[in-house]
């Protein structure tokens, strides 16, 4: 079954036509491909021959002239969509896009994958392709000792070894869904210039080199089949500035590897205008072919001229508008206005709640980079869940990275952590999904010293609480970063307005016990000392209603039930739902 046939079977509102937005024929692609001239250029052979019985796909460009022609035609196709509106490639017009769709604010959690030929050496981190040419870096030493001189065994010779023979898109998508992700997708191109999609533009793509499969297409189909949204992350801006970009050490120390066709395309060794046209053409091809809901950008975007940034955004949002969709674009380094994008924090997050929704990128691995390397270490499930909670409390969304092995399998340690997140969300998702930030994001002794990217993270304890609220404002969730212990637990970061509106109740005797409408004698106390309650209720998610009271200074006091460890909703973090209260942050709240 072709990609379009699979898409037509899904009733997700997606345009499954076989034409591009400008009416030109849309290519059909296969899950597997085969021998091409590019393989011969690399001195490799494929064991699988490409069939053409069900496809009208053209082969990737085999000469520089064909490459330039493919780029030109793709950019022209984008121009037609831009000209058709409704958005013009000007910041004033692009300020009218819906830069933060409701689905993005609701879904909260997604997963993406660093996976490519850099997974073949599996050494140090995914910036191996850059540092192997850096004569002052230990990766250069490792490469020489293991493979030979970098100009004799350049990076492009890893591509045929990226076979993905065990990759199962349905298995990945099922894992991501089980982890609680609402959107997911691949790094469709990292800084190394190699693309995971079936491309007519670049010869360095997964359908024509390496695995001879359209990896992006397989994932897109599997992810959408589970009614998740599709993410594509682009890191190619840093590649397509040539000798000043990702492969600068190759240009400096081993220039021969960047020369000739098709190698020069991989290294971004192109005339300036062609560099940026290629940048745009790759985006246009992926958006037109796979219809991503979320396009994420990495470093290097400020080096792309604003004209191209505006043209892409106009194309993306116009294409989405034609399909009745709202989409998300992130930016780093303040490259794009927040009127048409959302801010991104790499390995970090802000110290305070942000007025506009934003994105945090984090990774399951601790030491060892974002992609697969041998002997990686991993963050604990507790750390990952706590990061998610803190991010959401500050109006953020979390995009979490995994790094599959070169064969397409995901390590047991990563799978375990994803499943732990999913188990926690199964019980506590009510406090995460479809929520909005409250008037304060939390309380407790632990908070970030400063916000931003690449921050020094913190360890939370049960004394730390993070707040979210339901979209309708009727419920505030107090998420405690651990099991708070049996007995009284005071939420110091909030106060209850008008606590005497209902009968007073001493701690440990409940707020408004079922069937109890009159105060008892023991509910009364001296003025200023009595404990009152309001007309709301408190639930411990995963358990049920719990007794509560309101202290003399207006703080909610929860009577935490005495639960055996096996009966607790979680020891990582638990959430209390405070329903139908009139609450305000106290002086102890974090904002």
Automatic annotation (TrEMBL):
Location of the region described as Disordered in the Swiss-Prot/TrEMBL record: 1-27, 496-553
EC number: 3.2.1.51
Ranges of biased composition (kind: Basic and acidic residues): 1-17
Residues in Glycoside hydrolase family 29 N-terminal domain copies: 79-430
Alphabetized SMART domains for the sequence: Alpha_L_fucos (SM00812)
Keyword DNA-binding: no
SUPFAM superfamilies in the cross-refs: (Trans)glycosidases
Domain Alpha-L-fucosidase C-terminal: 463-578
Source species, domain of life: Archaea
GO cellular component: lysosome
Keywords, in A-Z order: Glycosidase, Hydrolase, Plasmid, Signal
EC top class, as a word: hydrolase
InterPro entries with a match to the protein in the record: FUC_metazoa-typ, Fucosidase_C, GH, Glyco_hydro_29, Glyco_hydro_29_N, Glyco_hydro_b, TAT_signal
GO MF, one example: alpha-L-fucosidase activity
Biological process, per Gene Ontology: fucose metabolic process; glycoside catabolic process
Physiological role: Alpha-L-fucosidase is responsible for hydrolyzing the alpha-1,6-linked fucose joined to the reducing-end N-acetylglucosamine of the carbohydrate moieties of glycoproteins.
PANTHER family listed in its UniProt record: ALPHA-L-FUCOSIDASE (PTHR10030), ALPHA-L-FUCOSIDASE-RELATED (PTHR10030:SF37)
Family: Belongs to the glycosyl hydrolase 29 family.
Protein name in UniProt: alpha-L-fucosidase
Organism, scientific name: Haloterrigena salifodinae
């Amino acid at each position: 079954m072709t990609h379009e046939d699979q898409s037509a079977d899904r009733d997700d509102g997606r345009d499954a036509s076989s034409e591009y937005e400008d009416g030109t024929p849309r290519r059909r692609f296969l899950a597997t491909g085969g021998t091409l001239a590019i393989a011969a250029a690399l001195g490799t052979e494929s064991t699988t021959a490409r069939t053409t019985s069900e496809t009208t796909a053209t082969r990737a460009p085999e000469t520089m002239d064909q490459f330039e022609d493919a780029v030109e035609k793709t950019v022209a196709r984008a121009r037609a969509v831009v000209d058709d509106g409704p958005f013009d490639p000007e910041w004033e017009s692009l300020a009218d896009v819906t830069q933060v769709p409701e689905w993005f604010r609701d879904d909260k959690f997604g997963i993406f994958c660093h996976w490519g030929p850099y997974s073949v050496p599996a050494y140090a981190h995914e910036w191996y392709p850059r540092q192997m040419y850096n004569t002052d870096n230990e990766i250069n030493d490792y490469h020489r000792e293991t493979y030979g001189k970098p100009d004799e065994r350049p990076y492009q010779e890893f591509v045929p070894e990226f076979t993905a023979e065990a990759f199962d898109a349905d298995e990945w998508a099922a894992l991501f869904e089980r982890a609680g992700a609402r959107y997911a997708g691949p790094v469709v191109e990292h800084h190394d210039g190699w693309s995971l999609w079936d491309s007519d533009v670049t010869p360095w793509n997964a359908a024509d080199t390496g695995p001879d499969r359209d990896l992006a297409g397989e994932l897109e189909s599997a992810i959408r089949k589970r009614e998740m949204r599709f993410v594509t992350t682009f890191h190619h801006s840093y590649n397509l500035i040539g000798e000043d970009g990702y492969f600068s050490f190759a240009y400096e120390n081993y220039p021969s590897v960047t020369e000739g066709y098709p190698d020069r395309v991989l290294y971004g060794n192109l005339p300036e205008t062609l560099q940026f046209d290629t940048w745009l053409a790759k985006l246009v091809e992926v958006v037109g072919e796979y219809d991503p809901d979320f396009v994420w950008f990495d470093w290097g975007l400020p080096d792309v001229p604003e004209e191209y940034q505006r043209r892409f955004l106009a194309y993306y949002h116009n294409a989405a508008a034609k399909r009745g969709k709202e989409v998300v674009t992130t930016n780093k380094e303040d490259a794009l206005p927040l009127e048409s994008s959302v801010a991104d924090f790499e390995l970090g997050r802000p110290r305070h709640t942000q007025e506009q929704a934003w994105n945090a990128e984090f990774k399951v691995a601790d030491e060892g980079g974002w992609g697969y390397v041998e002997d990686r270490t991993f963050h604990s499930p507790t750390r990952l869940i706590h990061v998610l909670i803190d991010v959401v409390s500050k109006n953020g969304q979390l995009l979490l990275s995994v790094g599959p092995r070169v064969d397409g399998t995901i390590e047991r340690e990563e799978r375990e952590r994803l499943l732990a997140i999913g188990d926690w969300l199964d019980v506590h998702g009510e406090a995460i999904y479809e929520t909005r930030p409250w008037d304060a994001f939390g309380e407790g002794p632990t908070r970030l010293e400063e916000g931003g990217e690449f921050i020094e993270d913190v360890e939370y304890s049960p004394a730390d609480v993070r707040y979210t609220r339901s979209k309708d404002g009727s419920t505030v969730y107090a998420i405690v970063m651990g099991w708070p212990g049996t007995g009284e637990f005071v939420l110091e970061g909030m106060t209850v307005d008008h606590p005497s509106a209902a009968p007073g109740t001493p701690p440990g005797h409940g707020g408004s016990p079922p069937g109890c409408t009159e105060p008892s004698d023991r509910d009364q106390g001296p003025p200023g000392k009595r404990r009152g309650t309001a007309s709301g209720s408190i639930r411990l998610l995963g358990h049920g209603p719990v007794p509560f009271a309101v202290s003399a200074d207006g703080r909610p006091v929860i009577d935490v039930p005495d639960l055996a460890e096996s009966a607790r909703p979680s020891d990582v973090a638990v959430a209390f739902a405070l329903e139908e209260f009139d609450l305000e942050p106290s002086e102890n709240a974090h904002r």
